[in-house]
Amino acid sequence: MSLPRISIVTPSYNQAAYLERAIGSVLDQNYPALEYLVLDGGSTDGSAEIIRRHAARLAFSRSSPDGGQAAAIGEGFSRASGEILAWLNSDDYFEPGALHAVGEAFAREPDADIVYGDLRWVDDRGARLFTAHLVLDLRVLAYESPYVAQPAMFWRRSIYQKAGGLDPAYRFAMDFDLVVRMLLAGARPRKLRRVLTNFRVHEAAKSSTLREVCDAEVARTIERHGLASGGKAAREAKKWLARGYRFLRDPRCIVSALESRLR
Fold first, then answer.
1. Is the pLDDT at 61 greater than 70, yes or no?
2. Residues 6+ apart with CB under 8 A from 19
């Protein structure tokens, strides 16, 4: 089986405490057609030294001020040459074998535009909190759960370009906006029922500090594309229909929903 070239971009800024684990989780995959780019925004915490230690195995790296996370990721993708694209934030890390599973899925299914899997939420030390099981569907995203589990998601360059790439105006929900536009552009998703990535929750994470920004950007994307319609009662009914659809498509979503509320 001929595996596609996968380009991974890691944006980072002052994440030295986690960066080594993130980089190692990519390089230790031993995926035969890997291109890895690390773009640091000029950190002052020792991140540059960590990147230099791995520079020989990186396709590209830099440590200098940039326009923020979305701009750094967009720059990385513009430099990348892989058929398959993804980004891994500097405080997250892949599961062993994740890239082989993804590459094989794309090779088996040439019509698939997006391959995604399960995402394990972990604490600051890497201990499991719960596992998120995603069902990628516009109705679910618009009415029930605007969660795209981007760290466990990979896509073809062709659909990324067709959708228009990342919008650098977004500070947090650039992943949600991109996935919505790829689905609207006709992306065909394929789900792998296995954990691909670990998503680290800690006090300095953007998911902990920019909640209001995220909510506003998600609402902006939904409104911009006219994804939701109807009054309050109609939207509430559609939310429960979307939730039922998600649970039917993958009953494991029920477990993750309970775990996430009990953690």
1. yes
2. 10, 12, 47, 50, 51, 90, 91
CA distance 113 to 214: 26
CB 199 within 8 A of CB 92: yes
> What are 130's two structure tokens?
């719960």
The residue length of the chain stands at 263
Contact yes or no for 154/84 (Cβ under 8 A):
yes
Position of tokens 């500070």?
171
The arithmetic mean of pLDDT across residues 82-109, rounded, is: 97
Measure Cα distances from 148 to 15, 131, 177, 196 in Å: 23, 13, 10, 14
Give 255's pLDDT tier (boundaries 50, 70, 90).
confident
**How do residues 182-196 score in pLDDT, each as one tens digit?**
999 999 999 999 999
> DSSP state, 47?
H
Percent of the chain with pLDDT over 70: 98
Number of helices followed by number of strands (H, E) in the chain: 11, 9
Residue-range domains of the chain with CATH: 6-262 (3.90.550.10)
Structure tokens at 11: 């944006």
The DSSP H or E segment spanning 57 is none
CA 146 to each of CA 85, 134, 243: distance values in angstroms, whole numbers, following the listed order: 21, 10, 12
Question: pTM higher than 0.90 for the full model?
Answer: yes
- Mean pLDDT (whole number) for 44-55: 95
Distance between CA atoms of residues 15 and 135, nearest Å:
30
